[in-house]
Amino acid sequence: MNSHAIKVACSNCNLRELCMPLGLKAEELDRIDEVVAIRRKVKRGATLFSNGENFTSLYAIRTGFFKTCITTADGRDQVTGFQMAGEIIGLDGIVNDHHTCNAVALEDAEVCVMPFDRIEELSREVTSLQRHIHKIMSREIVREHGVMLLLGSMRAEERLAAFLLNLVQRLHARGFSKSELLLRMTREEIGSYLGLKLETVSRTFSKFAEEGIVDVKQRHVRILNTDALKLIVNNNQQPCT
Known about the structure:
Strand content: 15-25%
Helix content: 25-40%
Structural class: alpha+beta
Number of strands: 12
Radius of gyration: 19 Å
Order of helices and strands: EHHEEEEEEEEHHHEHHEEH
């Protein structure tokens, strides 16, 4: 255990309902507390895990923001997702026992380390934990489908509108404002995730601001017209044939 490892109890965590199943009995929580016993601090810009690294644990984000990214054949970093407090990362390592992406802290962060072999063992006995892990995996699949839709059929305005709506919805579930957010990621990172050039992201933010949909001051974004953002996204939604 290094100097960043700290004893933690899930039963006393205010994010428990976001990353653990609801309705656990006291003895079940005690058993999970024994498994999820270590916190790890990750400095801004540092890597939590890297592509090719052996997979040993899942990580529940306690504070801070992360991005996951892969390095393309031509050496560019491609952002594959943004993760925040209450979410679990590291699922990519389950398939082949090694991680397939890098997880980089966008700000000083803290995670709870969940050794996967022990979580797997405990989930066989605590069925609600097993169901919860399946739900997390399913949510990741749904997220990837959403990204495929973003990159496959949406115009720049639709991609950015969908991104902002998703981000503010996730933040609101954690007690933050429905309409104001501080972007932890750069415009370039947003562009990498959405498949857009940096100048396109900046131009689209400016367009939204001119139309009175958002107010942007550097990384501070205030959504002035949520319905307008939803309309931009929904105009793209076509029924499957």
